[in-house]
Amino acid sequence: MERLFYGIASLFFILSVDSLDERICSPIHSTATEWYLDCSNRNLSALPKFADHPVVNLVLRNNSFDSSIALGDWKSLKYVDLSWNDLIDIENHTFAGIDELEKLNVSYCSLQRITSQHLRGRTLIKLLDLSGNPLLPRSKDFLAVVNGSLDRGTHSIHLSRMQLRDFEIPPDLFFNAKHLSYLDLSDNILVELPRFPPSLSVLDISDNFFTILKKGPFQNSTGLTYLIAHDNKELVEIDEDAFRHMENLFKISLAGNKKLEFIPNDVFFHNHNLRHVSLVGCNFKTLSPYLEPQFLRLQILELQGNPWKCDQSMRWLAGLNSTTKGLSHVRCADGTLFEEFFTVTKWNMWVILINLLVGMVFLFFVIGFWFVYDLEKRRKQANPYWRLGKGASTLTPVYVSTVV
């Protein structure tokens, strides 16, 4: 009887623990063989007891896990999110035994060291997010991890907010990556950009310290469709051929570059697929009319937040409003809406034109009247008898004596 009691108590305890784990985490049964488990924001320091379930996606974001965490028992894992924890190091045992890991997010974990051992014998890690770990690039294994991931065919790498400097990123680090399609290098301290591969589709180089966007890094970027280059504090110049080889470029953001006030006339000449350009929050005062043929291809053109000098040299932009979205909220430097300024200017032009036509018609009548008057005067002066009236005979002379 006592054994039965303890058995029932143990079963109740196990069920209560499982029930507690389900309350702590949020299991979602995608299919019978694939679970999604969300344990984010729970202040956890120990793994929940779901290792024997087919958990494919495990989200442990914003907890209290440290370097001792070991996920080797979670054999089905394909996606792991450990961001915003206190991992410090990623050791060999962290992912030992996981053979199908495809996506790994260890951003903002105060990482100081990451070993490349976890890449060996594993299937392709398609997404690797190391963002927000500024001490990690000083680790001797950092480049080995990035190179190892690229060599195995990683598709997406996030290296944002890592205080990366030029000497920590070799110029050809990404150049031979045949499968890399997404690269985030934003919010670093890069003065020179590395060379980018043809496979790259989306590139984020925002919030860095380069002064010129040069042709060199993009010379082989034929597959790039979206370039994000906003909020670069020192950017003042764009090479005329910087985007020349981006045959598939669809969208580009140059927003927030406070020192950028000029773009070359032919900068988008070769980007025939370009449909969206953002120049929001820069220092543009005017744009060359030579850009009009390139901008006519756009679907969206964002120009807000610039000190535009609205005058007749900018009138060509008003013509884009019927075909291009994004111009309705643009304001001139004095606060006048772009549309209102050119609507008023257009109305003023019509008033001037109408007044000019009225003046020309009046002048025409004045000249006509003067011409008729002068013609009649000349005719009368040619006939000395015109003062005698119309009935007077001009054949019989009339003598008028002036002697009194």
Automatic annotation (TrEMBL):
Coiled coil: none annotated. It comes from the Eukaryota. Keywords: Leucine-rich repeat, Membrane, Repeat, Signal, Transmembrane, Transmembrane helix. The chain crosses the membrane at residues 347-373. InterPro entries: Leu-rich_rpt (IPR001611), LRR_dom_sf (IPR032675). Residues 1-19 form the signal peptide. This is Leucine Rich Repeat.
